[in-house]
Amino acid sequence: MTDLVLHDDVLDENCYRVRLFLSLLGRQARMVAVNVVPGGAQDSPAFRAISPAGVLPVLRIAGVEVCGAGAALLALAHGTQTWLPRDPGGFAEVAHWLEFAGGPLAAATRARRIFLFGEPGDRDGLRRQGAAALRIMEDHLALRWLDGSPWFVGDGPTVADVALFPAFALSRDWEVGHEAFPALRRWMRRMLALPGFVTMPGIPDLGVV
Amino acid sequence: MTDLVLHDDVLDENCYRVRLFLSLLGRQARMVAVNVVPGGAQDSPAFRAISPAGVLPVLRIAGVEVCGAGAALLALAHGTQTWLPRDPGGFAEVAHWLEFAGGPLAAATRARRIFLFGEPGDRDGLRRQGAAALRIMEDHLALRWLDGSPWFVGDGPTVADVALFPAFALSRDWEVGHEAFPALRRWMRRMLALPGFVTMPGIPDLGVV
User: Fold this and answer.
1) Whole-complex ipTM
2) Is the minimum CB–CB distance between B85 and chain A shorter than 8 Å?
3) Taking CB atoms and an 8 Å limit, are B67 and A93 in contact across chains?
């Protein structure tokens, strides 16, 4: 028995963010497939009745339909012991990186859709912006490593790591390699080794899983 | 004495979101002016050292630099008694609307920049998307009104109302009038009457303040 429902497209990076977090938390959800490519189901009247702006994923939690990966991750993290720090500084840092995942790093998500699915958009510009966002993450993690932690916030994995992970893990889909990002590669190895980790097509396994 | 610092541009809608919330909370922040138009200061090395992706506003809170309005609002709401519900359903609803403010409603924010400041972009497309996002908010508030509440979540104002307010209040800047949005107009009246409300150029006063 579960009260969670996830409206999900298996090839969508934002949906994977939530599938990954559910699995790391050991929580089950009833899955409802939404055929975005090539079905265009995100624009159907039935889906728009649940998600008026056509945003995926949609997570039903505590009786509420929550639209978008950032909101779904935050709602799932709320009330956990370790994935969302309660101290003001830790909470603020996680909020910062969740916004980064939905803001500057969204260029990476859009670039992937252009390369993989032929969506319209500024292919080169978004690829460049996406790579610049990965560079900001790399610089942060390189400093964190000097502080003795491989994670984005604090001493263990938080929902921030979950939000940021897919864009880097899938960057080869939009033709940005991992060679120039040693700190992100180290972090990715830690992510792949977390209990409950699940992968998706396009993520290299690094021999970890 | 305050530990809060806000890097702020007075004409920026996202900065106003945070100024408004600070004022509603009765909290002081040391203000640091960032001259975006016409100065382009968001791209200066000094500002990029604080906000690597050039995102405004930046709020320093609990010793942490938080970039972006959504993250700053969430960090400020954390630990308040009423602005961020703690029950799972209320928390999930607020998370949903914060993501909406930074997602579909961001078209409104971008449309305003094109109309006011001549930024490049798809003027008509973004104006249309912004108006569609306001329509989703109108439909939600019309239903809420039938339930007896004028607020987006629960029985009183939350950080969701603060995040959503500026895009509607400033919509005339991008040539979308308020006539077609009676529920949003009613809600705006309530917002303007909140203790601590502060306005910004472009927001009609409705005779309330």
Assistant:
1) 0.96
2) no
3) no
